[in-house]
Amino acid sequence: MTYSGMSMDDDGDGFEEGTADDGGAETGALDDGGFFYEDDGGDVHDEGDGDDGGEDDDCEPAREPDPSDSLRTWGAVSRALREHAGYSRAEFAELVRFSKHTVESVELGRRMADEAYVERAEEVSGNTGALRASAKFVTRGDAGLAAWFREWARLERRAASLFTYECRLVPGLLQSAAYARAVFEGTVPLVPDGRLQSYMESRMERQRMLSERPTTPYGFIVEEHVFRRRFGDVEQMRDMFDHVLELTAPRNVSLQIVPLEAGLHACLDGPVRLLETPKGQWLAYSEGQQNGRLISRAKEVRLLRQRYDTLRSQALNTKDSRRLLERLRGEL
């Protein structure tokens, strides 16, 4: 099933409204900001094709939530209860086992608290029941994410592993602030000034999971020409290279570059993302002009995994990829 709307870039940052183009009405239960029902393990259910051993379950699209102030309201209540309990933000973060930055983002309404956060915050704040009860009514406006990308953005925050192939531009999870701004400012139609900052914040917020989840494997395969494409001035280009090198330095994050001389390969159909859920289910996501598609059919996901694995063997290894980035930076 594909949802279409107004796209901003490879990561679905853009205008919020998407329309179902499969001819069906958007009905079903409202979840926390995506299109698909999920069970308690985060697995997405999609309708199987009947010949793959029953690996896929039924799914039904959910209504897109209306933007609201509920995130900010819930965050303000959470902060008030924390302060009433006498904890500083740093002390509270340690007790709920989330980073101080995550606590700040939740309290300021920039981030939706997941179930674990709600339960721990409820216990630490005195078990009044207010946080647990009100969390059921919180909706994610996600003004910085296109409607069709929100489900994937939610899933990737809980993924057991995440892999990305990109041939158009630097993946959103690796973009520097200046690079992201250049992408947004070059979009047609133009991004309203009032929305630009929220898009930037959403992009930078997503990147933090690379450091906040140090045991989760993140893999990136990117075409060399992506890094050769110029934007801004020399200092902004150097900052982009430095940013990518910094984010891909940890052991759980790998970057492989497909060199120009590699020739044609298995992923010529376009960018692809793959993730493994906490229960071991593999999902995929693809995006093009004006649409994005979350893929859960097992046979289709297997094919995309095979293509990705084939390309990984054709790309430079991580050490040679870093050397190439450092050389490109030095040539500026």
What distinguishing features does this structure have?
globular, 13 helices, 8-stranded mixed beta sheet, 332 residues
Q: Topology of this structure?
A:
Elements: E1 2-5, E2 18-20, H1 70-84, H2 89-96, H3 100-107, H4 115-124, H5 130-135, H6 150-156, E3 161-166, H7 177-185, H8 193-207, H9 209-212, E4 218-223, H10 224-228, H11 234-247, E5 253-258, E6 272-276, E7 282-288, E8 291-295, H12 298-314, H13 318-330
Parallel strand pairs: 3-4, 4-5
Antiparallel strand pairs: 1-2, 1-8, 3-6, 6-7, 7-8
What do these coordinates show?
With 332 residues, this protein is α+β, with helices and mostly antiparallel strands. Helices cover 39% and strands 13% of the residues. It has an eight-stranded mixed sheet with strand order 2-1-8-7-6-3-4-5, sandwiched between helices. α2 crosses α3. The longest helix has 17 residues. The protein starts with a strand and ends with a helix. The N terminus is likely disordered.
